Amino acid sequence: MKYTNQFGESVQISASDEIWLNDEFFAREMAKLPSDAPRAGLAYRVSTKGQVDHDDIPMQKIECRKFCAQHGWRVVLEKAEKGVSGSKVSATKRDAIQELKAEAEKGNIDILLVFLFDRLGRIESETPYVVEWFVKHGVEVWSTREGQQKIDSHTDKLINYIRFWQAAGESEKIAERVATRIQQLNSSGHYSGGTVAYGYRAVHKGRVNKKGQPVKDLEVAPEEAPIVQELFELAAFEGKSAYAMAEMLNNRGLRTHSGVKFTPVHVLRILRHEGYLGYIVTRSVKSQHLPELEIISPELFQKANKMVDMRCTSNAEARKVAHKSDNNTLLAGLVYCAHCGAKMSGFMHHDRYKLRDGTVKESLKPKYNCYQRAQKLRDCDGQALYLADRVDGIVLEVVRELFSSIRCAPRDKLLEQKIRQEYQDKRKQKATLEKKLQDCEHALERYEAEVLRCLDGESGFSQEMLARLIAKAEAELRAARQEYAKVLQEAEDDRELAQKIKECYRQFCGWAEEFELAPLTRKRMILSELLEKVEVGKGYQVTVHVKLTYKQFLELCQTEENSENSLRNTTDGNVA
């Protein structure tokens, strides 16, 4: 018979040892003992399920049974713990220890025998007192390898504590080695176990471990990956909430890998999981990029998580999307009161009015509400309610005018030419400042060299005049350095801005084509990306604030005449 020990080594059990696993043989051996033979309770434990599978407990059983037979002890009780950590699970929560204690209190055992003392536990602050408890209750504690543990003297107690302190240290070393190996596996792109994220599955692909056993690897689940893609797109492009998406999945009859219904927490975990970018991610390490595991592009992941961040309670004031994804207003999250500056909420309002014939009519209309004014929380001389359709219409007119400007805007080549021209202007300015900086440095060097001549009486400058000239040269040099640093920073900012404007151009072109046919949720997301905010005042005076990057793009890619036309006041709305 063969078994694999705790170190992963294959050990051959001889026939003479294997017979001790036969309960009938062992019962006959026990029957040979006198009736007054000491009664022994045996305790076995393995820390992992892997040790259970590899027959580590039979090895302990053989050694303990042989030990009892050699010493003339009758075995009256055997307790085995399978897959129980001695360093993490308290003795108070281990059934085997509690049952052995109960037998000791009843006086049913005289000896407690284990293969090694660390089978009782590896918690240095607890296990020594477990041993002490048994000894105080008249039970001798023995190990097949370490002999009897006594507590008769102060030295015995110290040895007892040191033994389990050392065992606890071994547990920490084992845990550290295991954690390091798992990190190495993950960083090299190998799955090391644990919960499989939705969208993937663990399958055998022919890889084996050092023991020659097959181990699993991750692969994309074809039936789940499109659902993950859909969740990211709904979050990024329509601003769907986690609650709405969880409800959508449950209505389709879909379930998590645990077989339970989706909750908002499950959806948020999916949206936050970097593994969908093509990585194996754990708490402490992220693997190299694995293209075969990529489900979501980095751009989509970033957009979706940006929307999730905007929905956080901590970002309520800066939120540019509707608090609820089923909101029927176009500008929810973007509208502000022009009078008090408070964010306005969009909701469906019931209107009741009476006709001339006495008939009472009711209508349900979307409106924007200045909550601060309605609740008198701050001074506000604006309206409490605004018809959403009217405000939305004004903003849509402005947005359509902005999008129409893209048709007459220059294409990539002209845009590149303008950016290149500005870059060349910065280079000329930089060269001019470099020459100025060199002149200031040379002037200061000349004045400093004149100091020695002045001390020798050979200079035509007096000490006072030379001091003033040096101070002036130092001030000019400092100013030149500051100006030069400012130009360098501006050049760097311009490079970043040019890249952003190029991205804006591509984004803007896509929006211009898509906007009119897009559903409400998508239009709302486009506007949240394009607009900084919309201010509404009395008489429906609306000011539309375009985000700075897009405003700079519009100014850059339009001629002066077009720029003036697109940024001038409309009938009821202004663009800022």
UniProtKB/TrEMBL annotation:
InterPro entries reported for this sequence: DNA_bind_recomb_sf (IPR038109), DNA_bind_recombinase_dom (IPR011109), Resolv_N (IPR006119), Resolvase-like_N_sf (IPR036162), SSR_resolvase (IPR050639), Zn_ribbon_recom_dom (IPR025827)
Domain Resolvase/invertase-type recombinase catalytic: residue ranges: 39-189
UniProt feature coiled coil, ranges: 416-501
Keyword annotations of the record: Coiled coil
Domain called Recombinase: residue spans: 197-314
Pfam families: Recombinase, Resolvase, Zn_ribbon_recom
Entry's Gene Ontology molecular function annotations: DNA binding; DNA strand exchange activity
Full protein name: Recombinase family protein
Organism: Candidatus Caccousia avicola
